[in-house]
Each structure stands twice: as structure tokens, then as C-alpha cells.
Design goal:
The protein is of the alpha+beta class. The chain is built from eleven helices and eleven strands. Helix content is 47%, strand content 23%. Strands 8-7-6-11-10-9 form a six-stranded antiparallel β-sheet, with helices on both faces. A hairpin with a 2-residue loop joins strand 4 and strand 5.
Length: 380
């Protein structure tokens, strides 16, 4: 027959050769950096808590003694409490649970993560539950942030490689916009490439305006990018709430009407020259966090490098084409010259033949040409 946790605790309550005095137990209990609690097993009521419990959770002795964990609603998910109890009853557990990770709600409503170990004990002749909980919130947050950073770096690396390998501006923009969806939770994202001579910009967009998704369209710089001078100076342009902003240009007005509340424009610059902007729109005020800004700036640098490379590649391709045209034209000129020279050689040979024939005719008629005449030289 399987023993209950309470029965197992009573069977273990025998001399061990090491007696812990109440004073020593109290010292360990009060000075532990972990949360230590004692709960009566039959009803779950708190019998004792240490000072760390109050420091971490905010609950005082008056709040909890005689109350239960369910009464103060400290378990974020009550199923975690049931897992703890099930672990105590599990065969082979010997009434002990170790390192159960669970989320807890503090008195002020904040959520923290704890690593719980618990054991059954006999106190005042009754089964009680001794629980030690280590606050691992910072460790969990650090681990999660490292995981997010690793995932972010992997996505950024993928984008960087794709950007540098892209053979067209369109392909590069598509790659970046697809990757942005996994990095920054914006309702709208776009890349604008400026043509200041023409006074417009090519915009590649993803998001709210479905008619522009995945397609290039051209917009007026004056009507859509009224803050271009700030972008030219390398400044990130942010509007925290379009509903409260005055003097919106045409582009921002359209975004506001489409449900966008906050926007951010990050300049794309190479060697101090403004090439365009990386743009984000959110459906809530103040949507761009500092973390998102760091990611956006890093992406903007990669995009600017790719745009500059595309520009240089275009210049090289034009120069190559012009050089090929010049070589072709020169080759054609040389071919015509060679043809002309060959014609002259043929004509000279025919002329020599005519002179020799005339000389022979004169000689046959008994007429000799004068000494200085070319006929006398035999058509040389």
C-alpha cells in the first residue's frame, strides 16, 4: 500500500544522530537568502514565514499567517500548486519535491519566477510542508534576453547576407521587410529610396496599406517626407502620437487615417549622403522602444551599404557599357580603315598592270617614252 506524504513524514521522524536545536533552526530559517515557509499540510495554512518572504513578495506576517497560498493568490497559475502536491505524492519521491519552476504574484501585482523545493516534516505532532523558494526572476529574464538576442543576431545575420547578395534594390527591400516582421512588431514597415533630383521617392512597403504591399510606388518627397532635412542631418524622426500632432504632412495624415498612431523614420546614409529612410508605423502611441531603435539603426546601416553598393554597381555597369560601345565603335572604324587600305592596294596593283600594258603597246608601235616619263620606269 502506497504511503501518503504525511505518513512518510512521520516514518522519517526518528533520531538521525544529529539534533537541530530550535535556536539553530530559527537562525537558519531567518537568515536564509531564499524564501522559507511552513504550511500545515491538512489545510495549507501558513504557520511561519521568514523575512525574505516579506522582502520579496511584499506580504507581511499579518497578511499570511493563518491564511493559505490560494487565499493570498500568490500562485500565478494554481496548476503549479497542484503539480507540487502531485510531486510530493509521487511514488519514489519520499515526500520531497526539488526545483519546481513556477510563477508567483507579488502583493503589488508584479510577477516573479521562483524555483521551489519542498519536503514533508512533522511539527508540533502534525504533518507540515517546509518550502524553500529561490527567486530566479533575474536569471530567467537574463536567459530569455540572451535567447532573444541570439535569435535577433541570427535574423540580422540572415538579413545582412541576403542584403549583400541581392542583385537588385527590389530584392534587397523584399528581404529586409520580410525579416523585419520577426524583429520589430510594427503594423507598417517601409523602405523609401530618395531621388532628390526628381523630387520623389520609391517606397517599398509592408503592412496596413494593402494596396502597396510588396510593390514599389513613387511618392512626392515634399508631401510625404517633410522632415527630410532632419533625416539629412542623421536624426531619427519620431512622432509618438499622430492624434495629438499638429501640421501633419500628406503621408502622415494618410497613416493616421489608416489607424497608425506613432511613426519612426530612420535615415539611410552612406558617407554622409542621405539615400532614403527606414520607416515604421504602430497602431498605438509611443510604439518604438529603445531596443527596437537599436535594431532599426543596425538594419538602416546595412540597407545604406547595400544601396551604396547598388549605386556603385550601377555606375560600374554604365561605364562598362559605355566602354564596350566605344570599343565596338573603334573596332568598326578600324575595320572600315582596313577595308579602305585593302581597296587602295588592289587599285594600285590594277594601275600598275594598266601602265605595263600601255608601255608594251608603245614599244610595239616603235615609240619610246621620254626618260622622265613614268612609262619609261615600267609602271614602278
Amino acid at each position: 500500500m502506497k504511503e501518503s506524504p504525511a505518513t512518510a513524514a512521520k516514518s522519517r521522524a526518528k533520531p538521525t544522530g544529529f539534533d537541530v536545536s530550535p535556536g539553530l533552526f530559527r537562525l537558519i530559517f531567518d537568515t536564509s537568502p531564499d524564501i522559507v515557509t511552513i504550511n500545515r499540510f491538512k489545510d495549507g495554512a501558513y504557520i511561519e514565514i521568514n523575512e525574505t518572504f516579506t522582502k520579496v513578495t511584499g506580504f507581511t506576517r499579518q497578511d499570511v499567517l493563518g491564511n493559505t497560498s490560494l487565499g493570498i493568490e500568490i500562485w500565478t497559475d494554481p496548476q503549479d500548486r497542484l503539480r507540487l502536491i502531485a510531486g510530493l505524492r509521487e511514488e519514489g519521491a519520499d515526500g520531497v519535491v526539488r526545483n519546481l519552476e513556477a510563477a508567483f504574484r507579488m502583493k503589488d501585482g508584479t510577477i516573479r519566477t521562483g524555483l521551489v523545493s519542498a519536503a514533508m516534516m512533522i511539527f508540533a505532532g502534525e504533518p507540515h510542508l517546509l518550502t524553500l523558494t529561490r527567486d530566479i526572476t533575474k536569471w530567467v529574464q537574463t536567459t530569455e534576453e540572451l535567447q532573444r538576442s541570439a535569435a535577433r543576431l541570427e535574423i540580422l545575420h540572415t538579413i545582412d547576407v541576403a542584403v549583400l547578395e541581392a542583385r537588385s534594390v527590389d530584392g534587397m527591400c523584399e528581404t529586409v521587410l520580410d525579416g523585419l516582421a520577426m524583429l520589430i512588431p510594427a503594423e507598417r514597415a517601409s523602405i523609401a529610396i530618395f531621388d532628390e533630383e526628381a523630387g520623389d521617392a520609391a517606397v517599398f512597403a509592408r503592412g496596413v496599406l494593402e494596396d502597396t504591399m510588396g510593390r514599389e510606388r513613387r511618392v512626392s518627397l515634399a508631401g510625404v517626407f517633410s522632415e527630410i532635412e532632419r533625416l539629412r542631418a542623421g536624426e531619427v524622426v519620431m512622432v509618438d502620437d499622430l492624434e495629438d500632432a499638429d501640421g501633419l504632412d500628406t503621408g502622415l495624415t494618410r497613416l493616421r487615417d489608416a489607424g497608425i498612431r506613432s511613426v519612426t523614420n530612420i535615415p539611410l546614409r552612406a558617407h554622409g549622403v542621405l539615400l532614403g529612410s527606414l520607416n515604421f508605423g504602430f497602431n498605438h502611441p509611443g510604439g518604438f522602444s529603445e531596443r527596437n531603435l537599436d535594431i532599426g539603426r543596425e538594419l538602416a546601416d546595412s540597407i545604406a551599404v547595400a544601396l551604396e553598393q547598388a549605386r556603385l554597381r550601377g555606375v560600374l555597369e554604365r561605364h562598362t557599357w559605355e566602354l564596350e560601345q566605344r570599343v565596338a565603335e573603334r573596332t568598326d572604324e578600324l575595320r572600315r580603315a582596313v577595308t579602305l587600305m585593302a581597296g587602295r592596294e588592289i587599285r594600285m596593283a590594277e594601275l600598275k598592270q594598266d601602265i605595263n600594258a600601255l608601255r608594251r603597246q608603245l614599244h610595239a608601235a616603235g615609240i619610246e617614252p621620254a626618260a622622265g616619263d613614268s612609262l619609261a620606269r615600267g609602271g614602278e
